Amino acid sequence: MKLILLGAPGAGKGTVAKLLTKLDGSVQISTGDILRGAVAAGTELGNQAKAAMNAGDLVSDDLIMGIMAERLKEDDCKAGYLLDGFPRTIPQAEALKVMLAEMGEELDCAVEIDVARDVILDRLTTRRTCSGCGEIYNVKSNPPAVEGVCDKCGEPVVQRDDETEEAISNRLEVYNDQTAPLVGFYKDEGLLLSVNATSSDAVINAIKAKIA
Ligand code: AMP
Q: Cα–Cα distance between 48 and 28 in angstroms, integer?
């Protein structure tokens, strides 16, 4: 399947994407994970992205389109892909449309996961991430077995730099201003599936029903 996952930070895009990969071998492509990997490795890309990311702002469309132009050509995309956190602006969505047309590919749908703001705020402030493998935890609902240590790889589990209260509120504002307009864009394209649900199973069932 070829899907876009839209939704505010903390709406559950990553969790849904991970579950969907198990259904048919589609690959999860998270621009946030790619950028965090680049920051951790200290690459040129990481250095360019770091300040904007830490403040909760978006990195430039050119930088993101450069990453995605390469990523979508990789072999593992042939089985399908779940775009998690991309596109995030109208120019990115337009550039993606052109890129896919050139590749002769079509999306199945763009899924908007719509979750109430208080749920999002609670999830983001209690979320913790493994600094090694990116595994996601939650201090309340899903803590690691040993506090601060990843169950999977043993690396430290930390709060992301962009999950301070200030950065979170900026990320939500950036989402409303720059990413929420994509809902209208994909509605006009006839590709929108809006799901108002906090449970990832409900989101997955709605996707299955839509693209079956
Ligand atoms: P995420 O993990 O998807 O919340 O992304 C973390 C951060 O990476 C965002 O707050 C942005 O700074 C940056 N980022 C990720 N994806 C994009 C994108 N498609 N366009 C611009 N910036 C992005």
A: 23
CATH of the domain at 188: 3.40.50.300
Q: What per-residue string of b and e applies to 162-178 under the rule 16 or more CB within 10 Å gives b?
A: bbbeebbeebbebbeeb
Quick one: which atom of ligand 1 is closest to the CA of 9? 4
Whether 58 lines ligand 1, by a CB cut-off of 6 Å, is yes
Q: Model-level pTM?
A: 0.91
Q: State if residue 45 touches ligand 1 by the CB under 6 angstroms criterion.
A: no
Q: Is residue 58 part of a domain?
A: no
Nearest CA to ligand 1 atom 15: 32
- Tokens 């990789």 found at: 74
List, run by run, the mean pLDDT of 10-residue segments along the chain (212 residues).
96 93 94 94 95 93 97 96 98 98 96 93 92 91 96 95 87 96 98 93 94 83
| Domain assignment of residue 152, yes or no | no
Q: Is 10 domain-assigned?
A: yes
DSSP symbol at 120: H
Helices (H), 60-104: 61-71, 90-103
CA atoms within 13 A on the CB side of 204: 15
- Tell me whether residue 73 is in a domain: no
Report CA(212)–ligand 1 centroid distance (Å). 30
Domain count for the chain, please give it. 1
Q: Which residues are catalytic?
A: 13, 88, 127, 160, 171
